[in-house]
Amino acid sequence: EVQLVESGEGMVQAGGSLRLSCAASGFGFDEHEHAIGWFRQAPGKEREGVSCIKSGDGAIDYADSVKGRFTISFDSAKNTMYLQMNNLTTEDTGVYYCAAELSYLVLYAATCLELEYDDWGQGTQVTVSS
Fold first, then answer.
1. What is the mean pLDDT of the chain?
2. How confident is the model at residue 2 (pLDDT cuts 50, 70, 90)?
3. Contact status, residue 55 vs residue 103, Cβ threshold 8 Å
4. Looking at CB atoms within 10 Å, which of 5, 15, 40, 96 has the fewest?
């Protein structure tokens, strides 16, 4: 059974930093072609992709809104994904979700942000105040 557990919830002022973690279990990220990523949902808005990694070629994608400020990484030894978020703005406020896609569809996706992810964590709240 795939399980994704996010942590790192916090409240910071604009310009501050936070690091989110997603502990994955039930699959080995490097064993097959998988994708794992971060999504977020702000109040009153639709969920959007933030960043993701494909295991096969290590390709990484970022939403334009976070490029240059957020860094995604994966620690294979811990099977844990991280999202380092710097220079946060109030627009980054929302619930952040970790998601994984383990199907063959990962092989054919041009970018991991375009995938439909099957497995999701429970979410962790990020609040940025002005």
1. 94
2. very high
3. no
4. 15
Query: Is residue 2 within 8 Å of 24, Cβ to Cβ?
Result: yes
How do 60-62 and 70-75 pair as beta strands? unpaired
Rounded CA separation 59/66 (Å): 17
C-beta of residue 20 within 8 angstroms of C-beta of residue 38: yes
> Under DSSP, is residue 112 helix (H, G, I), strand (E, B) or coil?
helix
Structure confidence at residue 107 (pLDDT): 86
CA-wise closest residue to 71 among 121, 20, 7: 20
Sorted by sequence, the CB contacts under 8 Å of residue 123 that are 6+ apart come out as 6, 41, 95, 96, 97
Residue of 63, 55, 45 whose CA lies nearest to 113: 63
Tokens coding 114:
């375009």
Report the DSSP pairing between strands 124-129 and 10-13.
parallel
Q: What is the DSSP letter of 87?
A: S
Q: What is the DSSP letter of 108?
A: G
